[in-house]
From TrEMBL:
Pfam families according to UniProt: CBS (PF00571), Voltage_CLC (PF00654)
Places the protein is found: Endosome membrane; Membrane
Annotated SUPFAM superfamilies: CBS-domain pair, Clc chloride channel
UniProt source species: Adineta ricciae
Topology with respect to the bilayer: Multi-pass membrane protein
Phylogenetic classification of the source organism: Eukaryota, Metazoa, Spiralia, Gnathifera, Rotifera
InterPro entries assigned: CBS_dom, CBS_dom_sf, Cl-channel_core, ClC
UniProt name for this protein: Chloride channel protein
Top-level taxon in the UniProt lineage: Eukaryota
Family designation: Belongs to the chloride channel (TC 2.A.49) family.
Molecular functions (GO terms): voltage-gated chloride channel activity
Region annotation (Disordered) ranges: 16-36
Amino acid sequence: MAASLPLEDGSKTTNWLTRKLSSKKSKTSRSSSPIRLTTVTNPNFVSFSDIIRSRRPTEHQSRVPAPTMDDSLVDIAVNASSDVSSLADKSRGTIDFFHTPPTTMPTVRGSHYEDWSTIDWLSDQARDRLRHQIITQQKKESAWKRFLALHDALSGWFCVLLIAINIGIIAAIVDIGAIWLSNIKTGICLPAFYLSREQCCWTASNQTYDKYQHVVCDNWYTWANLIRIENGTTTEYIIDYIAYVFFGLIFATLCAILVKTFAPYACGSGVPEVKTILSGFIIRGYLGVWTLLIKSLGMVLGTSANLLLGKEGPFVHSSCCCGNIFARLFPKYGQNEAKKREILSAAAAAGVSVAFGAPIGGVLFSLEEVSYYFPLKTLWRSFFCAMIASLIVKILSPFENQHLGLFYVGNRYRWFYFEMVPFFLLGVLGGLFGALFIKLNLAWCRIRKKTRLGRYPVLEVILVALVTLLVSYPNPFTRMSMSDLIRRLISSCETEDESLLCNYQRNTTSAYEKNESAKPLYGVWLSVGLLCSALVTQTSLFILTFGIKVPCGLFIPSMTLGAITGRIVGILFETLVYYQPNFFLFAAECSTADEQCVVPGFYAVIGACAFLGGVTRMTVSLVVIMVELTGGLSYSVPLMCAALVSKFVGDALVGEGIYDAHIQLNNYPYLDVKAEFVDQTTAVTVLETKQDKNELIMLPRDSLTVGELINIIHTYKYNGYPVVSSREEASIIGFVLRRDLQLVLEQRAVINVQSNLNTQISFSRITHQSNSIHIYRLLNRSPATITLDTPTTTIIDMCRKLGAQTILVTNEKGHLTGILTKKDIIAYVKQKKMK
């Protein structure tokens, strides 16, 4: 049976505007209103539907004066501080509000779900429908009620607007801080210490570039230059090496300490947990204020330490934190977990938008990768949220070109049909890399969980950072940040480019002549060797880094390794074309090309797409993100080829992406809505294989005392209890939540405790016992019910598509024989996959 944790009161931020205005209104209307809210156990109450019917007299019915709704009812309907589920009339399939004095009305602060539990989508959607029905009915009464209705209708757009503005501001701050701290490891700008290396050299008159395309100017001082060490000496190299490692260790250690001390949920990517939350799972504190603050600071410190991690995935987590925080200000979403997930889906789109400067790709990422329930209105709000967030970053960040086309190359690259062969090869390599990375990373995470290493997360971060910094500095390609390395790898080699990566023997004497294929010289092959070394070391460090207790994403590291591989393949294929110019494919196409036939920089773009697709198994959203990143609309076909091939190869070897793999590793109750499940069993098999075979507790419709109910509630702490016709006959009458029963018992507490324990409880529609507690209206008369012969695939679809939380199982006579929950179904699916 569905196990549930003890009832817990949360805290929600009330809508200050509604509270302020409604308090003024209540001073004049409460004293004259003839209707008061009464206790939920009063059998003579008047429901909201009864009020509506009283306003429609028939010819056989005399007109009755229509009562007005009390302002406290408005507050219940639109105020996030009141939990309307405690006043639910589940016998009608929706919610009715009872008229009870405000002093006796039970309210529960915050969400009515327990930590680490699943939400009931059907119940939450029913609650929202009736809340909307009440507000629509009330807006005809006064101008203030019409304003409340307008406020409720626009609250979703206001909420996503606040999310977009805040995540845009956070992204700009993170970018500025990360770039500045990254440059601190190598030196400082003496004229203005707060400037990065690139900004410091903007106004310098003698700005030049070294053989690895690093900017050099007199305003920028390395740490060796500050102590008057001569350039080009071994001492200078050692001093800069020590400073690089020292500052990197400081940043990594500070990041790990902040995460461990203030917000343990701020570690990792956050995308697997966000997917689980959006599927209907409750994780208290994961989207809180402290998590947002430490996650943002951790992104700055982690990327500045040159660890093999990115800040793009954590931006999704941070934006969802903003969504959860601002949803509390709007009762439509703050008090309804199902509706809140619509806001979180829009927030996830904004996270990718500010990370890559790809608003359309962010919307598709939310739809394809993280969202569980994505209606059309959520698509519009996601689009709006991603657009505003990207605009805010453009306005605030001085590095706006890094967001609007993060790795911009434009349409200057031209590809030919014979290049589909190396593109296909890059797709295969991306799938192989993704499968290898997932297998090895999961194995390392299991070792971390099972050994003493997991007890010392800060020490692990320090060791990983030390190894990373020591290995990265000697290689100039790994010494620079991953974003700078990708931009260097995807750029083309112009005639005036004198870096080692562009060390070609060209026959042109003018920069305006056609840039044809040229013979690669020593510098190119030295760069290939350094890139191969970087590929091996960075892959190994990436496997060890992803999963440590700091904010760590995998988008940029995966793209970096893919760009390295793509550049190497591009150079090799370019060399083949140069030495075999008469091959019929090369001769026919390259002779008519306006520019050089094979561009290694374009292969880096395809490789980045293939490797990221192999790790995450993204397809449509990945291609759109890459098109927005590069600004090249003509590259869609090669990008689609690489993404599809990498997904097919990765699925054939592993079968799931890194996010789903970590969901299973952490044993989150996630039922993949996209996965296909083929099984010939029925509900009988699922009941027999349940891991938690709890005792089946049924409440009789009548002949139940308060003392018996209290004993059941305290002994069997389930989510709810089925109500049957009698103790002898288990015909299903309905389902009642444990939490609602607790509220009823709290209201019925009297001075004579012994007398109260003997009071009868009735779930019948009509009762003849005046002293009994009549709680028929708290009964859900239409719970999800199946038979023992129901196919397992149908049960799974009920949980995935209908959002059923609890399913009652009956035999051929219609008698209750068992209960299945969503967690039971998830456990069964996992058992079948393991077999």
